[in-house]
Structures are given as C-alpha cells and as structure tokens.
Queue: 4 jobs
Job 1
Amino acid sequence: MRMEVIQNETCQIEISERDLYNPRTQRLLESEMRMEVFQNETRQIGVVSCEVLLAEDGRSFLTGMLNGRHPCAPYSDTMDIDLVEVEEGRVVFVGTPSARYLNPVGTIHGGWAATILDAAMAYCVHSTLKAGEGYTTIEMKINYVRPVLPSTGVVRCESKLIHRGSRTATSEGRLFDERGKLLAHGSETCMIFPAEAT
C-alpha cells in the first residue's frame, strides 16, 4: 500500500492510498485547507519565573498575558487556543479545532475539548488569586454534548467561578460553537495554597 504525506504549515497527516478515496477523508482535508488559524502571530510563548508569577494578583497576571506583558503558556500554542477575556471570576478562551486533533473515528479528540475547558476553568480560579498564592487542579468533570469537527470553526469557551474559599475553589465552563450551540461543559475544583518563589 502506497502512503502519501500531506503537509501544511500547521500539521502533517499520513494518509494511505485507500483513504484518499474515502469521502470523509476528502471532506476533512478540504475543510483543513479552507480553515483560518485563529492565532495572534506576534504573541510570545513561554513561562515566567516563580518570582514574576507570584508578584502580582491572578487577574493582573492574566491581563498581562492578554496584553503581551507575559507570555502565553506553550500548550495554548500547541492546541490552537487563546485567552481573549479576563475578569475576576470569569475568563473566555477561543480555539480552532483542526484535523491534527482527529481521533480514529474522525472527530476531534475529547482531550482537545477537555484542554480548552480545563484552561478556562483553571484560569477562572487563577483570576481570583492574591499575590503569593498558588493553585492546582484536583478534580475535573467534562460532559460532551455534541461532536467537535474541523468544520466546526472557531469555538468559544466561557468559564465562571462558582465558589472561592480559602483552600479550594470551584468553577464551571461551557464550550460553544460559532452558532452558540453547546458542545461540552464541565466543572473543576482547584486547591489554593500559599506559594513560595524557589
């Protein structure tokens, strides 16, 4: 069986000769070629030192990511997701699902939707941190409502804070397509703790 490699600027897909004649594969490849990648070409990607992270409150730090004062996390570049709004207790991400995130049955892998939901729900908690506080996710629950496809287009993930205590916080997130249809939703619990710069 002859293998053909199709490569564009963002991904490489190996397709067997048999798959080239599959109508579903053809539709996916055509949609991939038409898609515009939602990404700010000038944004910085990276991580900051603990000293920088802990020096300001969470909302200020996340606002710094929005305005370019702080770099965006490397996973957001890999997953084609972007933080676009920050308020205390509320954040919004957008993302572009593409063929490079397909699972074997031809839909976007649930891990991609889980990643954008996790990012939004965690950053929602981050937006409430005081200077010197850290956090980590201790539980996450995702419900998938509709399949996400490369043809879905840009999706929007909105998250809001449900509870903020001294040691834990909970948030919920909802993932929508361009028409406002719900694709997935979830909830997350984070542990909050005093952090030290090391």
Job 2
Amino acid sequence: MEGQGISLNEKRTQKDYSLPFKLQVILEVEKGELTYKEAQRKYGIQGRSTVLVWLRNHGSLAWQTDNPMKGKQTPQTKIRELEKKLKRLQLQNEILNKAVEIADEQLGTDIRKKYLDLLSKSSGQQVLGDIQLD
C-alpha cells in the first residue's frame, strides 16, 4: 500500500455509506428512536450535517431547511410597520393631550404642571420630550 501513497495508519477523511445503511439510519430517526445527532454518535457517522442531508434527500418527512428570511422582515416592511406605529402613537398622544386639556378646564386644575413637578422631584431629572405646556 505504500506505493499508492496511503499508509495503513492514515485515516480517510470521508466515508462512503451504502444506501441501505442510510435508509436504516433515516428510519430510526423518523420513528423517533434516535435524534439525528444520536444516530451520528451511535454509528460513528462523520460530519455534522451528514444525517440531515440523508434525511432531506431520502426521508419521508419534511426535513427541508426553512427559508432563512421566514419570519424576518425586509427593511422596507419594517419601516412601513414602524411608520404606522409612530402614526398611531402620535394620534394617541393627541387624544391624551386633549383629554388632559378637557379635564383641566372642567376641574380647574393644571394636571401637566403637577405631573411634571412630581416626576422631576421623584426622578431627580428634568423631563424632556413632547409634553406640551400650556
């Protein structure tokens, strides 16, 4: 064998598995007797995805990989969604501001001023943002 360039101590990096062997492993995994990783360890199958490839090619269950974009949004879709959310929150803010104005008029109070004073005292910070003072 030395004349062929392969010594007896050298290991092959890739094994060839017969179709009946592959089908037996697939059957055990699909029956739930083993996970694909357990099958790899049990039978000494090389490669992390070898059994998964067999399952995809020869298995009876749907072992296809999912679309990596499934469940993810394109940037344009995400922007549209965020714009809708922003619009809804702006309308909600307008409604709440109007409700505070009405309450101030009917009760003769200044809710915003009281709220800002309480908030700044409790947090020790100035309140910045879109709160409108009348």
Job 3
Amino acid sequence: MLKIENKALYVVDNAIDADLNEQLYRWALASGRPGWRYGDVADAKYSKNRFWGATLVSADSEDGDPKTVDEAEEIVRKAWAHLEPRLKPFTFDIRDIWLNGQTYGLENAIHTDRPSEEEGWYTVLIYINPEWHVDWGGETMFYNQARTDVVYAVVPKPGRLVFFDARHHHWARPPTRNTQDLRITLAFHLTRRSDSPVP
C-alpha cells in the first residue's frame, strides 16, 4: 500500500471481473432509479463546474434514497459483496454510494472527500467503463496537501479499484475529445470500523 503524506492510497487491477463490470456499466447507463442528475459539484469553494451524478445509498438520506447497502438495488449489493473481501483486513461501514459521470469538458475541481483532517474516512472508486484507452484521459489525479503538485495519477481501466484516504486532495479529470463516452465511476464513501486496523 502506498502512503502519500502518511495517507493510504492503493490501486487493484481486475478488482471486479469483466462480467460484473459490464453489468454495472449497462445498468449505470440505463439507470432510471435513482436516476442521473446534472449539477453535482466536487468543491464549490474552488469551482462551480458541474458533472453528472446519481446517489445510490446515503446514510443521511432524507428523500427516500436507500440508507444502507442492504436497501440498495441488487447490482449495487452484488458489487459491494464482491469488493468488501478485497479490502481485508480492513473493515468499513458504508456512508454513501454514488455514480459519477463526466464527458469531455466536464471539469470538476481539486477536492477531498472529507473536509476535516479527521482520520477514518475512505473512498473506493471503481472504473466501470468496459473499454478505456489511455488517450481518452479521465485520470484521477492526486495532489500534495498544498495542492501545488501532482503526486500520483491513476488511469481508468475496466474493473480497476482505487482505495484512498478521503483526506487526499484529488481531481477526476474529464475524458478528452478522443471519446464521446461517459466516464463512469462507482464511488463508495466509507468509515473505518473501530476494531479495524488503520490502512
């Protein structure tokens, strides 16, 4: 596991098999529930640029979204059941599950997934496009604490998992003009259980 500024980050290729990856992708594109919305913003403090999103689970939901993975659609439960063992020996509770979508020109901003320096919050991204080429862009860029340098970059690949401490500054780059595809990630926002070791 890589540590950048003493915060965990690691990448696992083929974290989900090609069949499940394809199922997730097709479901995401056709998803009418909970449905895509345009207007999500990564960090309004730095940018008001919008992108596509869909809330699948939210522990704080007040508008009818599932509050736990057990209430989520079958494909989401299947994805988590497939991923959870790959995170061992660490154990987590799910706070949120989202779909994020970007096409060419849909920039967001450098941000963290946890605005405080409190340890214990983590993010898992799964790239679910069944095909992706390096010249299509869409990298997830990780920055130093000062937000002045890129310290790590992850290229989307089908079924690739990125696990990181939610305090990491990062930026989902949009696809280039070389593709008209929607770059889709399935994102899990997690809290570390008290009996779990620290990643």
Job 4
Amino acid sequence: MSLRLVTEVCMIWNMSKKQARVMTAKQFAEQMKVNYRTALNWLEASLVPGAERKPSPVGEYWEIPDTALKMERPKRGPVPKGQIEAKPKRGRKAA
C-alpha cells in the first residue's frame, strides 16, 4: 500500500467514529477557494476553529469540522508581533 492510501484509510476510519462531519486540509482549501498552502498556513497558525492535527501510522493529518467553513478569513500580511503565540517545535519534547 502506498503511504498516501494508508493515511487516507486511517483518516476515514477516525472520521467515521465521530458524528460531526469533518474534512481534510485539501477539501477545506477547495471549499474556501484558497491555495492548499494557504489553508495549511491557517491551520498551523491555529486560525481555523475546531481543527485538530491527528496522528496516523505514517504521519499526521488535519481533521477540520465543516463548521470551520463559516470562519472569517484572516487578513493578509504578517501577524502583528503582540499577537504571535509561542508554539513548541514539532518533534521536540520540553525539557
């Protein structure tokens, strides 16, 4: 099985356990009519309400509730310095 297929199967299996409708980052980008990289930037900056990063045997994926489609689009440009939250680096554990 390919890496992508295994990830999709894990994602669908996890989604089927929930009652709320959820979508992938790619589906979210298509529905919001934005570039996939833009959607990932929003997700990584925690701008998408209810979105969760989930582990799978071959990596991680995003689960985004369909209610996130009602979100207000972020304004273009850099985030003002006072509004940036410090996030731990992925893959590193706190000492």
